[in-house]
Amino acid sequence: MDEVLVSEDVRGRVILYDAFISHRGSELKKHAEKIHGDLSGLGVSSFFDSREIRTGENLSGVIVEAIRVSSIWLVLLSKGFAESPWCLDEVRLMVD
């Protein structure tokens, strides 16, 4: 894999992800979790919200930073994806 610059995130931890997994939780959480596990088994680090965000953390800040320090973004589209302002904001951050 190509090397990516390591960044310090909003929580003071150094993070680096090969992939950021974007999904509408209520529809594809189990699929996203499986992809996260499969990638991990292949040695690919991926950001998966329910595994990476701790209680009390600034959700928006963590997501923005994770998108910024990820090499690629995996967007799992579902019927309701475009109805979620949060999901659409993630995609905007990816393409900006």
Automatic annotation (TrEMBL):
- Write out the coiled-coil annotation as residue ranges: none
Under the heading Pfam families, the entry gives: TIR
Name the domain of life this protein comes from.
Eukaryota
Listed transmembrane segments: none
Q: Which UniProt keywords apply?
A: NAD
Matches recorded under InterPro entries: TIR_dom, Toll_tir_struct_dom_sf
**Where would I find the TIR domain in this sequence?**
15-96
PANTHER family linked:
TMV RESISTANCE PROTEIN N (PTHR32009:SF134), TMV RESISTANCE PROTEIN N-LIKE (PTHR32009)
Give the species this sequence originates from: Amborella trichopoda
Q: What is this protein called?
A: TIR domain-containing protein
Q: Which GO terms describe its biological process?
A: signal transduction
